[in-house]
Design goal:
Layout (H helix, E strand, L loop, with lengths): L3 E4 H31 L7 H25 L1 E4 L14 E6 L5 E7 L10 E3 L3 H6 L7 E6 L2 E10 L1
Length: 155
């Protein structure tokens, strides 16, 4: 079984989601199925069919989260080297063309959230950043074209 790198915070977030699904979402959905079933004819009961679809989603998500948590390789981000970019690093980069600075943290695929500055190590920018040092430049092919960055600081 292949291990998936994950920050401690990412692991905790997935655990919380799993617990919420098991303790809140699943029981509420079971009640919704029972209520819809009580309305009679199931062949034309939209509430019943919606609740059954929701049940399928919940069970699938529970299974997926269990697998992700089981294969997680939790990386302690407090003990990361500061001389090069590695998984979990927070890095300040500057777009060479625009001069715009952006801070990223390299995280696992299940933790990425571009709006929060967390990018996956499997993304084009994430792959290009791994192993780089301060003042290194990198060029990345992104959907909108090529972008060049310089690493300003490893935080």
């Amino acid at each position: 079984m292949e291990q998936t790198p994950m920050t401690k915070q990412g692991y905790e977030n997935l655990k919380k989601e799993l617990e919420r699904l098991k303790r809140i979402e699943r029981p509420e959905n079971i009640k919704a199925i029972e209520t819809a079933r009580a309305h009679g004819d199931l062949s034309e009961n939209a509430e019943f069919h919606a609740a059954k679809e929701r049940q399928s989603f919940i069970e699938g998500r529970i299974e997926a989260l269990g697998y992700k948590l089981g294969t997680a390789d939790i990386i302690d981000t407090d003990k990361l080297p500061k001389d090069r970019v590695v998984f979990g690093s927070r890095v300040l980069v500057e777009n060479v063309d625009t001069g715009e600075s952006t801070e990223y943290q390299l995280v696992g695929p299940d933790e990425s959230d571009v709006n929060a500055g967390r990018i996956s190590v499997t993304s084009p920018i994430g792959k290009a950043l791994i192993g780089k040092k301060v003042f290194d430049e990198l060029t990345v092919q992104v959907p909108s074209g090529k972008r060049s960055y310089e690493i300003v600081e490893i935080l």
